[in-house]
Amino acid sequence: MNKQSDQQDALHQGRAAELDILAKEAAILDASESVNTRRAIEGAVNHFTLEYGGLLPCTGEQLKNYLVRYAGELSVATLEQRRVLLGRWHKENGFATNPNDSELVRQVMRGIRRKYGRKQKQARPAPLRLIHQVVNWLDQQALHNTESPPVFRQALRDKAMLLTSFWFGLRSSELIGLRVCDVTLHWDAEVPYMELYLAKSKTDREGLGQVKKLESLANLCPMEAIRTWLEAGFHGVARPTFLNSDAPLFAAVSRWGEISSQHIHPNSVNKMIKSLFQKAGVDATEYSSHSMRRGVANWIIDSGASVAELTEWIGWRDTRTAMRYLDGKSSLPSKIIERHLGAGRAPLLTTDKTADE
User: Fold this and answer.
1) Residue 27 falls within a domain, yes or no?
2) Could you tell me which residues come within 8 angstroms of residue 317 by beta carbon, excluding any fewer than 6 positions away?
3) Residue 200: enclosing H or E segment and its boundaries?
4) Exposed (0-12), middle (13-18) or buried (19+): which is 120, by Cβ within 10 Å?
5) 199 plus 300 within the same structural domain
6) How many domains does the chain have?
7) Is the CB of residue 137 less than 8 Å from the CB of residue 155?
8) Which of 117, 162, 192, 349 is 20 to 30 A from 339 in CA distance terms?
9) In which element (H, E) is residue 357 found?
10) What is the residue range of 55's domain?
11) Residue at a domain's end among 116, 145, 166
């Protein structure tokens, strides 16, 4: 009887272990899917079913009617995204017919693009002089509020965050996802430099991570700004246990000056950038968190780098994406005129040691 009981216990343990493995596998597969992608699919499904009143699965005819209904009301880019996401929903749920593959749907989308297509509005690129203006304002805030921990620490954090966002051309999700352990400061090197590890990135579909290196700059240096922020916000940067922690690099600061253990909320980044610009005396109407990414892209090209080098540094998949970010740099007549005059544009930052090499 005991032998039979032991066998049953072993069988139950084996099944439990198998279920644990399956649950772990499911969790890993879920992690491989971008959270933003899942949210976008859910939004498309909710709009089609709840707002429009459609039923899923749907036919090509029904998807066509949906697109026609919102043509001119929603942007072309939104409609393009919705039809792709709805098609993906059908595929993921195992339906043999994908309405997005319908030639009728394709024809309607071509007509919508011709009739309602407009140049996509982008955030205005932030030139280096504006970054300099905002940083100067933050320096003054920190200088005059050393006795006020909330204002002092927020100013140091915002400076480090702004410069890191600009020089590395980071997306908001990449910026707020940074942990303290993702930054390594090599002050003892012959030329001091920092390493920034991006564990997650929009274009890193395999989740391999990416390391970016940047030498210290004589002016507007993110490396120096991060060190100052860590020293003030986390009581020094010499503690190995802390430097290897998962604590958020750009954490929220409470009204009492306490450092939160949570990352800044993704929806707050854009508001923070606009607020900083406005407080520094800059009209922030056309600027957003994406202005940092576009701004450094323009600076890189103006400083003499190739589009291929730009694409690699920013993390784009192809040069077509890069050209959409550049502010008028694809104008061939302008290039010809510059050559005819015998001089191109000078780099905007003359104090950057890497730009002079």
Assistant:
1) no
2) 203, 311
3) none
4) exposed
5) yes
6) 2
7) no
8) 349
9) none
10) 32-116
11) 116
Query: What string of DSSP letters covers 255-317?
Result: TTSPEEEEEPPHHHHHHHHHHHHHHTT---TT--THHHHHHHHHHHHHTT--HHHHHHHHT-S
Residue 322's closest CA among 305, 336, 308, 334?
Answer: 308
Kindly state whether residues 112 and 180 are assigned to the same domain: no
Same structural domain, 60 and 145: no
Crossing angle of helices 60-70 and 103-116, in 10° steps, is: 10
pLDDT tens digits, the chain, 357 residues: what are they?
455 555 555 555 555 555 555 455 445 545 545 666 788 899 999 999 999 999 999 999 999 999 999 998 888 888 999 999 999 999 989 998 899 899 999 999 999 988 887 655 667 888 889 999 999 999 999 999 888 888 999 999 999 999 999 999 888 888 888 888 899 899 999 989 999 988 765 555 555 668 889 888 888 999 999 999 988 876 554 444 455 677 888 888 888 888 888 778 777 888 888 899 999 998 888 888 888 888 888 888 777 777 777 777 877 666 666 666 666 554 445 444 444 444 444 333 333 333 333
Q: In sequence order, which ranges of the chain are alpha helices (DSSP H)? A: 2-32, 35-46, 60-70, 76-92, 103-116, 128-143, 149-168, 172-176, 222-233, 240-243, 266-279, 290-302, 307-314, 319-325, 332-341, 353-356
Total length of the chain: 357
CATH number at residue 73: 1.10.150.130
Residues 97, 221 share a domain: no
Q: Is 138 exposed, middle or buried (0-12, 13-18, 19+ CB in 10 A)?
A: buried
Q: Which two tokens stand for residue 191?
A: 């030329």
| pTM more than 0.70 | no
